[in-house]
Design goal:
- By secondary structure, the chain is α/β, with parallel strands linked by helices.
- It is built from 14 helices and 15 strands.
- The strands form two sheets. Strands 1, 2, 3, 4, 5, 6, 7, 8 and 9 form a nine-stranded mixed sheet that branches. A six-stranded mixed sheet has the order 14-13-10-11-12-15, sandwiched between helices.
- It starts with 5 loop residues before the first strand and ends with a strand.
- Bound molecules: adenosine-5'-triphosphate (ATP) and magnesium ion (MG).
- Adenosine-5'-triphosphate (ATP) binds next to helix 5 and strand 11.
Length: 376
Amino acid sequence: MLKYDAIEVHFGELWLKGMNRNEFISRLKHNISDMISATGADIVLSRDRLFIYHKKEEDASEIIGALKSTFGISWFGPVLLTKNSVDSIISVSNRMFSADDTVRVSVSRSYKGTTFDSKELVGSFIHSGNLNYKLDKNSDKALYISIMASGASLCKEKIKGLGGLPVGSSGRAVVLLSGGIDSPVSALYAMKRGLKPTYLHVHAFSDNSDAENSKMNEIIRILRKFSPGSKVYFIPSHIFQTATLKIPRKYELVLFRRFLFKIAEKVAEKEDAEVIVTGESLGQVASQTVKNMIAAQNGINRLIFRPLSGFDKAEIISKAKELGTYTLSIMPYKDVCSIGVRNPSTGMLPDKVSVLYDQCDIDAVINRSLILSDVL
Ligand code: ATP
Ligand code: MG
């Protein structure tokens, strides 16, 4: 087995964001360091890329696994490092390939002070009598050589990163998480845009522990791979259900949604979050009308981010499968009653919702529900 010197990490969009570049890079470095702290690896910034120097060979696969769920990375790969000399580059490349390999050599130079340019370096490979593998510029197998001021890196496997922005670089968000298919996917896209999530789940059990030990636990475990340690609020719905018994059933759904936004706003204050994220997508169900959405969000003093607005259900499902939450989401789960209202009103007006809100004293419902909540 080949022993690599380091794992090289390239940032995508970050590099383009001139103004906040340094802040974003240090955020990315911090996030990676959080993910791989157990390995004790060193992370070193070298101009436009990071190098992760792992302590033990066995750590490399753990680090690669963590990088696959880190936003803000365009690509990464294990590399061998050497000095900027043709002979040493060729000799290191001989350790990476064997006689059965046919290889395409690709050179990029971020440092122009070498005695050779990219073409000349490839030429030296072609004319070298010392290669222990074959060359073919059309081969699928590649050797990527990167020339930097500090030396050369050689890589044969560029692994595509998730792109996006490092989690936290856009601030914090309260993510409304249900047991359904959509909200875990919306959480993923919120993280992709640099939001650090705190999850809020309203459940229909009498005990928080029933929700905490349900499939929600698994869904959250998957989402935490992208943002380790994110908090979750488990909030019971029974106080809301009791308080709204006297209102017509058809209004309950929009009132429940206003309640969700209001309680999210309360949690957002506590968690210093400027954004609320939902898995809503326009017109997906009868109740997700423009009118109902406006009525539900009326008076909410946060940016409401709906990452799935432009997605078809089939696209969301395929993303949920890729994420690994789909089979959990379709498992039976005790839904909050309001969600299952038959024939909900589709044209609610904001004022109407506000009247119902005050009638049921939802502010008090929120305070009492929060007292009963668990934060994990
Ligand atoms: P999902 O599949 O995410 O449940 P959905 O298509 O079933 O979405 P709704 O049930 O109308 O749609 O919910 C829309 C959004 O409201 C959800 O994506 C989620 O963000 C939020 N939401 C719904 N129910 C809850 C809940 N019990 N706790 C927290 N948030 C919720
Ligand atoms: Mg739902």
